[in-house]
Amino acid sequence: MEFILFILTAYIAYRIYVMVYFRSDQFTTIQRSIEAYTANCNDLNHHIQELKNAYVDVSSYDYGISVLTDSSNYNFKRTEWNNNSKNRYVHNCSASVCKNASDQPFKYLCKYFDIKVTEESLSSFEAVLNDFEAAEQGKILLREKRDSIVESIRSSIPAIIYKFNKEKLKRKLGFEEIDFSTLYFPVYTFQYVSAGGNSSTKCEITLDINNLNKFVDYLNTLVKFRKSIAGQRALMTSALREKMKVRDHYTCQSCGISAYNEKHLLLEIDHIIPLSKGGETTESNLQTLCWKCNRTKGSKIIAS
Ligand SMILES: [Zn+2]
Questions:
Q1: Are 55 and 186 in contact (CB under 8 A)?
Q2: Residue 276 Cα to ligand 1 middle (Å)
Q3: CA–CA distance from 80 to each of 67, 133, 160, 218 (Å)?
Q4: Closest to 121 in 3D by CA, of 190, 211, 208, 222
Q5: If you measure from the C-alpha of residue 256 to the centroid of ligand 1, how many angstroms do you get, rounded to a whole number?
Q6: How is residue 277 annotated by DSSP?
Q7: Tens-place pLDDT, residues 100-140
Q8: Domain map of the chain by residue range?
Q9: Alpha carbon of 265 to ligand 1 centroid (Å)
Q10: Which neighbouring-strand residues pair with 19?
């Protein structure tokens, strides 16, 4: 009993000592001496928080329902909470889309969340990856930097305070907390809920650093292919051919002969600027030619 009382008294004395120390002039002097370093660290911390928001500009599309309920009773800082609600996208779909999305996540991500396979989105995602990577590295560097600042003043602080109150010490010195959670990574969800609500499936794609690297690779490969000759040929579908013929009223755009006048006229679709010269398979670069004109054009290009 006496022993317990002794421990209790010692503990209370220690708590009082800690409390008094953090209010002492000695501590205030130390605090002042590193004020500039502290401010610097806090600035870096804010910069890291900003980097985490890189994704918000990229995804301005409005996609379905995204419900997040805040049921916590405490009113603490909600940086991550804000990031989280901005970076969640939900698409309600059939069970089979859900299944396919888990087999080919990037393909379905582009298709159902309207991410265009273009150089613009490629460079946006590259920028996001860059900022996210910097944010993740920044967190680690910031922690090391703070530790080394605290270490440098170690000799001026009583050992017992330094040893058992490191986190409190950092807070008292004015360092803001570093948010180490990774909740800011965008999450795309495909979800299927049956009509009765009895069965449901869910496929979640989180664009963390690892997935972003892969996604940038994926987009890059697709963009390159689309720009390549093979890719441009692949765009030349039967439907597009037919569409061009309708647009040109089944009439050769060179000699004016029309399928309306000549029943068995063979019409071809020609790239005005050839693929070999950097032309693209776009409607403005396509025209309907009769096979004779197309052949003449082909030989002219070869000759020139
Ligand atoms: Zn013709």
A1: yes
A2: 22
A3: 16, 17, 34, 28
A4: 222
A5: 6
A6: G
A7: 999 999 999 999 998 989 888 999 999 999 999 999 999 99
A8: 34-225, 231-303
A9: 10
A10: none
Q: Do the beta carbons of residue 187 and residue 89 sit within 8 Å?
A: yes
Pick one of 1.10.30, 1.10.3470, 1.25.10, 1.25.40 as the CATH number of 231-303.
1.10.30
Q: How many residues does the chain have?
A: 304
Q: How far is the CA of 272 from the centre of ligand 1 (A)?
A: 14
**Hey, is 264 helix, strand or coil?**
coil
pLDDT tens for residues 31-90? Answer: 999 999 999 999 999 999 989 888 875 655 444 444 444 444 444 444 444 445 567 888
Separation of CA 302 and ligand 1 centre (Å): 19
Centre of ligand 1 to C-alpha 279, Å, is: 21
Long-range contact pairs involving 18-26 (C-beta distance under 8 Å, separation at least 24) = 18/161, 18/165, 18/168, 21/158, 21/161, 22/168, 22/172, 26/156
Give this prediction's pTM: 0.72
